[in-house]
Amino acid sequence: MTKVKSDIEIARAASKKPIMEIGGKLGIPAEDLIPYGHDKAKITADFIARQQGRKDGRLILVTAINPTPAGEGKTTTTVGLGDGLNRIGKKAIICIREASLGPCFGVKGGAAGGGYAQVVPMEDMNLHFTGDFHAITSAHNLLAALIDNHIYWGNEQNIDIRRISWRRVMDMNDRALRQIVGSLGGVSNGFPRETGFDITVASEVMAILCLARDLKDLEQRLGKIIIAYRRDKTPVFARDIKADGAMAVLLKDAMQPNLVQTLENNPAFVHGGPFANIAHGCNSVVATTTALKLADYVVTEAGFGADLGAEKFFDIKCRKAGLKPDAAVIVVTARALKMNGGVAKENLGSEDVDAVRKGCANLGRHIQNVKKFGVPVVVAINHFTLDTPAEIEAIKTYVATLGAEAVLCKHWAEGSAGIEDLARKVVEITDSGHSQFSPLYPDEMPLLEKIETIAKDIYHAGEVVASDAVREQLRSWEEQGYGHLPVCMAKTQYSFSTDPNLRGAPSGHTVTIREVRLSAGAGFVVVITGEIMTMPGLPRSPSSERIFLNDDGFIEGLF
Predict the structure, then answer these.
(1) Quick one: pLDDT at residue 109?
(2) Is 76 a catalytic residue?
(3) CATH code of the domain containing 460
């Protein structure tokens, strides 16, 4: 029996082309590429600015059902579809997020695709890459240091140290840092206070970098960050302590999109990485809008299931950037549907058509939700070797009852050759011009009503529970002029509800708002529900235990 190569073995055997050649295919001159070695580069801001008058290509969003331990393969399908479009003669670019070290060493693993549908260099992308996350971490923590320093040297802004909202970040899962007391050790170390750490991908700086259009917009947004409140409860902004300029300097290079390639030597932009259950879960606006100027088709993804990633892509990213998606692909596997239908992970290898049909309720909910945004939908069945014809046919039959089509895709095993059917279907849908995209709610809707609209229309919740303190905070922000902002729901990715163990398509459940945070610079209100944490913890047996350098100096176990 032929041994199936691991993802990292496939990536390591890739026949990569020089990154200047990949850029050349897009019409990017060598002088507008800043190389990071031979296989990755950043695209200069000057080149991006020169593309603004060009016509936009078609925008395709790849999303998925709620993730399960069985696996769905959203990034793999994004990469495969990009390769498939190029294979059938279309000029396509893939736009995905950068990987966070937290999940790499925790549970999720890498984020560069899989099998024969990967972006390379895989090891670099899943580790330090071009240093963007380190720059974001540094800029965020510079602001934190400047806040404590400002207070130490007299507190000219009259910051109430009980109401400092800016925490610190690091790109690692570390539950011990969620709540800490800082500045201990005496007078020379400042004023002791309670604080804590979030993971870098939850930082408002990350969200700002991913939503900013250029360096000027970036600096203005950084200046709008609310860092604390005074005793009279008026906000203190980052610009008030003169932090915005230095933060922008640290982020100057990180603002430039990263160019890499797929295993089939097609261009991929990998830039930014806000978490989808904590933040808005999309790659950068500057990467997506630049790709739209350079290609006829741009394939991008949004994190986790469509209830989180797609909703935020539509209601936050598209709203803020003026994007109008032409189609959405919802990724599903028969294995994941069986889990939603009640089958245990260890029994997924056996045919169970009834469980597939039962689990299709989750898929159906996502199809209906995406259609609420006016975007045409096609379902991609990401094929596993143990899937049976009867299970595949059950999915196709179910999807057809909802007025959509499900296409079997074998890109993991066959690369672009295994996803040609989906590529042709996507071209058909996008070129038809049937997309009537519209966000779920208008800007002028009150903040609590926006939350309730998402909870009831997307999650199918029966009610939203918010304390008087939360309601008062939302009203206060509306009075301060922030009522027009969209809301960013921080919710478990595993369920439509706030209970991660409630699979399928639950209805009538309660969504409890634990906390709300204003991200004035990014331009949205974060709504924290259930038990979601902005600093994840590591599992009992983290992935890091199986990551090491082999005798030849190669990385093992990363993915």
Answers:
(1) 61
(2) yes
(3) 3.10.410.10
Same domain, 283 and 409: yes
Task: Verify whether residue 371 is a known catalytic residue.
Answer: no
- The answer to whether residue 191 is catalytic is no
pTM: 0.94
63, 68, 75, 76: which is the annotated catalytic residue?
76
In this structure, the number of other CB atoms found within 10 A of the CB of residue 121 comes to 22
- The Cβ of residue 557 has, within 10 Å, a number of other Cβ atoms equal to 15
Predicted pLDDT of residue 1: 43
Give the closest residue to 471 by CA, choosing from 524, 530, 513.
513
- Looking at the fold, whether 268 and 387 belong to one and the same domain comes out as yes
β-strands 487-490, 117-120: how paired?
Answer: unpaired
In the chain, which stretches have pLDDT less than 50? 1
Number of domains in the chain: 3
Which of helix, strand or coil describes residue 285? helix
Exactly one of 74, 167, 221, 312 is catalytic; which is it? 74
Range of the domain at 212: 132-249
Distance of alpha carbon 169 from alpha carbon 388, whole angstroms = 46
Tokens 């890109």 belong to 411
User: pLDDT for 169-217, tens place per residue?
Assistant: 999 999 999 999 999 999 999 999 999 999 999 999 999 999 999 999 9
Q: Is 477 a catalytic residue?
A: no
Same domain, 376 and 451: no
For position 554, what pLDDT does the model report?
A: 84
